[in-house]
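Researcher: Next entry in the queue.
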Amino acid sequence: MALSVLSWAAKVCLVLLSSISFPQLLCVQVILAQADRDTAILGLFQKMGDVYSFITEDKRLHQISSMHTVLGQISDQILECAHFIRDYSKTKNFCEFLQVTALFTVSMFYYYRREQNRKEDAIRGYSGMLDKLMDNFQKQVTRDVAIYVHRTGKSLYVLLTRHLFIRLQAKH
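Model: Structure for this entry, 172 residues:
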């Protein structure tokens, strides 16, 4: 029974695909790719919001001088991502592209696809850079904690040594 359903579905797909012209098939591919890009843009926007919320959550974070560089880099990256999303939203969508273009040829499709690939690469690049900057931030925090613990340990050692020395002098 499952094979007959699969066979029926395959026949329907074959009929549909055979009735679609090559330019129409290209249009469908472009529309699906546009939907994927829009989803990726939404993911980048959500990541920007998460990073921004994390950074602005605690005002004391900005008071730590060792964090200024990495926080500045993260802020610059968020601003660059915001500009990218603004510019992306201004570009013509596929439907407008088809309205302007009277004849949709294969060469136009490949030009449009190259432009969209460039945008997809930019989205991945921005998302990866935000991940990298947050990783750098976490490494900076770990480094600062290690330095603080080391300094605290040295200070505690000096205080204990002085305290013991004073107690020894008081006994003699």
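Model: The two ends are 100 Å apart (CA to CA).
Researcher: Noted, moving on.
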